[in-house]
Amino acid sequence: MKIKIGSNYEELITKKEFSLNKAREILSNERIAVLGYGIQGPGQALNLKDNGFNVIIGQRKKSKSWEKALKDGWIANETLFEIEEAAEKGSIIMFLLSDAAQIEVWPKIKKFLSPGKGLYFSHGFGLTFKKKTKILPPKEIDIFLVAPKGSGTSLRKLFQEGKGLNSSYAIYQNYTGNAKERALAIGIGIGSALLFKTTFQKEVYSDLTGERGTLMGAIQGIFSAQYQVLRENGHSPSEAFNETVEELTQSLMPLIAEKGMDWMYENCSTTAQRGALDWWKKFRDINISLFRELYKDVSSGKEAERTISLNRKSNYRELLKKELKEIKNSELWKAGEEIRKLRPY
After folding, report:
1. Structural domains of the chain sorted by starting position, each given as residue range(s) with its CATH number in brackets
2. Do 98 and 122 meet the contact criterion of CB atoms below 8 Å apart?
3. Which of 117, 123, 182, 231 is catalytic?
4. Which of 10, 45, 103, 246 makes an SS bond possible with 34, Cβ 3.0 to 4.6 Å?
């Protein structure tokens, strides 16, 4: 279907345009090897399996993810293999390891990318920054991407509820002439509600900007700042947390997701309405230069370089735990831990 947003027209793909039966038919002779069973792997693999596709898993033995795969019903030496063996067996290789792990594993799996195979990503990082990652695929394969706009956990949960996440898709290399059909078939198979077109580069630029911005980085910074100001002015931890996080996530965000911000402004108290209208442009004007700086760092490769460099450090996991512990042990999220226990649902 085509939609018009302002002067822009976009084509969106749903099950009406590309049915699940059509997806099954296109991939009927394919064996899909999902490499990695961490963040995106379980949700995408289980959804494909439940939708009737031929799926196997590639994961390191004696790892937590291997044990998780066994608990999820994958069978060792039948549908669960070491990474290299799964890559050899698959006609489409879904490369769903973390960006850091992809760099490490790439030399071991590239030899299995024989002519006509498909190489699938859910993130454009590895190929967009190929000079840094050294992920250089052969020319005789299809390369495509489907990127769900949410976590693998959400993808699975919504699938089980009969719903789906929106996903982007992109074609990097179309050797067989069927790369788009393969991409859309997997996109529908993993449970995408709709698919919109992008490129590997645009996917990674928007994704890295979002993660560092409104999805996690900026929102944590705003939470922390507002909470601190309320506490400095004598508000209790419970009051500060509820006004900063709980009301937003539990009450307002679901309504904004369903009806939009304009509806929210129209359907709140006149006091809240007037204040929100007076202040939103101030927050925009203060933050727009920061977002421009962020996007510049992303598109220049600076953020990618930092990510790769830090992940290569032998003590990275220890440093990461310290950073996460700082957030977990902050009063803001200690208050949140206690408030969540008291939710009546």
Report:
1. 2-198 (3.40.50.720), 210-341 (1.10.1040.10)
2. no
3. 123
4. 45
